[in-house]
Amino acid sequence: MEEEEEQQQQQKKGKKKYYSIIVPTYNERLNIALLVYLIFKHLRDVDFEIIVVDDGSPDGTQEVVKQLQEVYGEDRILLRARPRKMGLGTAYSHGLKHASGDFIIIMDADLSHHPKYLPSFIRKQQETGASIVTGTRYVRGGGVHGWNLMRKLTSRGANVLAQTLLWPGVSDLTGSFRLYQRSVLEDVINSCVSKGYVFQMEMIVRASRKGYHIEEVPVTFVDRVFGSSKLGGSEIVEYLKGLVYLLLTT
Ligand SMILES: Nc1nc2c(ncn2[C@@H]2O[C@H](COP(=O)(O)OP(=O)(O)O)[C@@H](O)[C@H]2O)c(=O)[nH]1
Ligand SMILES: [Mg+2]
């Protein structure tokens, strides 16, 4: 790591509770500015940085991020790009390497994860001392909005299947809107092997097996505002393979 960046991280760590928000992006040019605006709007009294991990998006996402850096400052918006699309799991660990926070928040760029929920994650963690706070769609007050029946059934089915087989004591396994204590994320991420969408589930299942204190807050996911999902048939096959793998190894 560059010396300058290390120094910056040290400076930030000196303050009380600091939050690093890792946002993986692939073709999110139309969403990222709105996301950043909303994060700043909803986290007024919180010390935080946003780390965008962009995988060489051809749509020019990085250009927008650079403009945002000019507005908000390079110490608040960090662009930690990679040359090409390399998957979500490694995007998080890449972001984590550059994070200064005591706590790490992971959220999607497409506004499915609304920043208005961020204070409830932070509050829940402070009230309970939890190692992980995960957003859940499947309790009272949570839900999904704008998905067609097929997508709802796929998500619900994936969850029910994983619940039955893995029994992790968490109601939403595949959602990725979460807050972690930094050391916990480091520990759990290092024991994960999957790369794609199944990564979310592997993370929470392993964390639960390791006995970490996990709390939930209700969230409503809305369908992405702009652009298209990267979830396809092959991801579903990967998910099922991952499920079987977790079943055998945890
Ligand atoms: N850096 C990076 N980000 C990705 C990759 N695949 C998806 N993303 C981002 O991860 C988040 C979730 O992806 P999305 O397509 O919305 O998945 P969906 O919500 O399950 O349909 C979004 O912010 C995407 O831009 C990837 O390979 N690399
Ligand atoms: Mg999405």
From TrEMBL:
Biological process according to GO: dolichol-linked oligosaccharide biosynthetic process; GPI anchor biosynthetic process; protein O-linked glycosylation via mannose
Pathway named in the protein's UniProt entry: Protein modification; protein glycosylation
Any single Gene Ontology cellular-component annotation: endoplasmic reticulum membrane
Molecular-function annotations in GO: dolichyl-phosphate beta-D-mannosyltransferase activity
Principal place of residence: endoplasmic reticulum
Compartment annotation: Endoplasmic reticulum
Domain Glycosyltransferase 2-like: 20-188
InterPro entries reported in the protein's UniProt record: DPM1-like, Glyco_trans_2-like, Nucleotide-diphossugar_trans
Broad EC category: transferase
Keywords from the UniProt entry: Endoplasmic reticulum, Glycosyltransferase, Transferase
Function: Transfers mannose from GDP-mannose to dolichol monophosphate to form dolichol phosphate mannose (Dol-P-Man) which is the mannosyl donor in pathways leading to N-glycosylation, glycosyl phosphatidylinositol membrane anchoring, and O-mannosylation of proteins.
Subunit structure: Component of the dolichol-phosphate mannose (DPM) synthase complex.
Family as reported in the entry's similarity comment: Belongs to the glycosyltransferase 2 family.
The protein's name: Dolichol-phosphate mannosyltransferase subunit 1
